[in-house]
Design goal:
Immunoglobulin-like, seven-stranded mixed sheet, Glutaredoxin, 3 domains, single chain, disordered N terminus
């Protein structure tokens, strides 16, 4: 089964408010696993990233909690203490009632049942995972979304997926799909939020001038993106707690060293809220480029650039124009080699 390659940023995930707090239950059976195998449930509660965990006993588990909102979550199976990337992971919604998770081996392959929204989300995922590659899924995304709209799949699930950028990020395509949905969906809270997202996406489309912002560097001094005009800039959104970001840093350091004397630099924008962890990650990973953050949730620059997951990057030319997005380190190296001479 094909799996999403982007590490989802939970603090940007969609929610839907209840009139009061309500109970959720996640239970089920994953193989015959016992201690030390543990399940971790990661979600956002009252604006704070939260992790619950439970040890499996003969594969069985149960996690209970209270929430004020329907909230996206990530369920991760770890066969040894702690969380280790790449994850054996399942995305789901925390909703009122009992959601059941069953699998013979892996949580990523689990069957979800028991709650309507999670059944709809499972159908949404299946529609895409039947396509074998990420690239093929992206090419087929418009047709798949249109089919699910015609089949009246949960408006909440569809709007949430579109807001999170699942397989479609082009603002024109997002606008087209929103207009094809019923007026009730367009006028819902999620529909209005998607419309606002489309406006933000239009401002960061390829060929657009990168929106300017000001954040504070590691010494507490203000730093504007526009201050770097005249250079090629990789605007890199990351976080100290993001394992894929930290793994990518190791390779990005080498590319930076290759081109740092050739009119190229990196501006790392961290969505951390803890200053000490942010600074420690910079030192530990040997990141010699510029760094800034407002250490707030949500980060204002990340909101401006509609960041739904980290790592996310934008390559900006000396005139301030966005010329590429979400380049892998290898793609970045090749791109820069075609533009610059190594220093």
């Amino acid at each position: 089964m094909m799996k999403q390659l982007i590490y989802t940023l939970l603090c940007f995930m969609p929610t839907f408010a209840f009139a009061q707090q309500t109970d959720f239950v996640i239970k089920g059976k994953i193989g015959q696993w016992c201690a030390p195998v543990r399940l971790y449930l990661k979600y956002v509660k009252d604006g704070t990233p939260t992790t619950d965990s439970v040890v499996l006993k003969n594969g069985e588990f149960e996690i209970r909690g209270k929430l004020k909102k329907i909230t996206s979550a990530s369920l991760i199976l770890s066969r040894k203490p702690g969380l280790h990337w790449p994850y054996d992971e399942l995305f789901l919604y925390l909703v009122p009632g009992v959601t059941t998770i069953c699998s013979k081996d892996s949580v990523a392959n689990a069957v979800v049942s028991g709650t309507e929204i999670n059944l709809a989300y499972a159908k949404f995922q299946l529609a895409f995972t039947e396509i074998k590659t990420q690239e093929a899924a992206r090419k087929s995304a418009m047709g798949i979304y249109r089919k699910l709209i015609k089949e009246s799949l949960s408006q909440f699930v569809l709007l949430s997926a579109l807001k999170s950028g699942s397989y479609i990020s082009d603002y024109k395509q997002l606008d087209s799909l929103l207009r094809e949905m019923p007026l009730t969906a367009q006028r819902s809270t999620e529909g209005i939020e998607l419309s606002a997202k489309i406006s933000r996406r239009q401002k960061i489309a390829l060929g657009s001038i990168a929106p300017d912002f000001e954040q504070w560097d590691t010494s507490g001094k203000p730093l504007k993106l526009s201050a770097l005009r005249g250079k090629y800039v990789l605007l890199d959104f990351w976080a100290s707690w993001c394992k894929p970001c930290r793994a990518e840093n190791l390779h990005l350091v080498k590319v930076y060293d290759q081109f740092k004397n050739s009119n190229f630099t990196v501006l790392g924008i961290s969505i951390d809220v803890g200053r000490e962890k942010w600074l420690k990650a910079i030192v530990d990973d040997g990141l010699q480029w510029l760094h800034a953050s407002d250490l707030k949730r949500p980060n204002a620059a990340a909101n401006l650039y509609d960041i739904q997951a980290v790592p996310t990057n934008f390559l900006i030319d000396p005139k301030g124009k966005i010329i590429a997005k979400n380049l892998s380190v290898t793609e970045l190296e090749n791109y820069l080699r075609s533009l610059l001479k190594e220093g």
